[in-house]
Amino acid sequence: MNSQIIDAEKAIREIDARGRELREQTRKVYEEAFKGGKEEGKPPPDFEPSSFLLIKSYGGDIGARPMPANIPFWISPAIKVRPVGGGDPNTISAGSPYEIECEIHNRGDLPVPSANVEYFLTDPTIGFDTRYATPLGISSTWVSGLGVARTRIPFLPSSSQAGHKCLIVRAFSFLPYDIPVDDTNLSPVVDRHVAQLNINIVAQAAPFSFNIVRQPNFEGRLSFRAATLREITTAGLPLLAENEFIDGEKFAATLARTATFERTGGETELTLKPGDGGVSLFGSGKGPDLGQQKEMTGRLADALNLIASGKAHRRQFRELFRERRRMGAFATRDTLVFKTAEFGLKPGMMTAAHLSLTSALGETVGGVTLVLRG
After folding, report:
1. Is the CATH number 2.60.40.10 carried by domain 48-197?
2. What does the pLDDT read at residue 2?
């Protein structure tokens, strides 16, 4: 036991020393950068170097959170799935080896010597919670200030992991301190450390099953909208570019008119009310009420804006983030199914639409992208 304590103390001293070394390196860089200024070799008095880890959820993502509305953030261009030795990356086959890659950005000026990157797999899901997912692995990498790095893990799927799945990746660092908003309830809408790849190739006139992760007390709406060819081909599915793309507007409109949703599983009460080209959801159960959720959404948005603008530091909102994690612990899961439309697509043709869930608070909970192939 004493030897373990000594080893732990040694490791802590080494981490502290490395931190001091990084801070000194950063100081020298900024002294050089600010030469010739009003105060020779000195940055502004309120300047504090920091890291800013980011996994992009869309092409122009700079890490501003909360994320703007109407962005299909669940098809992150930063996450790639590649079959080892060739093959179709559009679906996962049991027993076939794959490589999963994630691109990590650091938009801060302080280097991150060991950015940890976690990979999770689950069934197609709107919203996400690690308690309903399978951890696939973790990797780490150095990310320079204002730099980009990539991490990869091998993946050999079992029979239960085959088919169309949802991937989510989370990045974090303890030195410098750059961690996600929540431990289990991961939302790219409010967290730049998290990204998702949730795109599914479906057959015509076939059932499609998916999960929803939400608060027990919930009001929201599921709706369809068109997906573009650019969104699909930048989401890590290159073989789809070989197909003739048919206007997604018609596909989304047909789904909105014909899709009938059925709940096949769940942990708390949920009522589905179809109408106006979508379906409204009303949930009830033990947990924060809608008023408490609205208050938390507003307070968190204000805090994230202040942090992003440099007017505040994350440590000033420690209690707020603790409250957010306590609220996230109430998250519950439902399973829904609907039937896709018969669209008359011929071989070599495809179309696509997004199915998204928006809460009554105006926040996009998540979504799934459906690609229909002939």
Report:
1. yes
2. 54
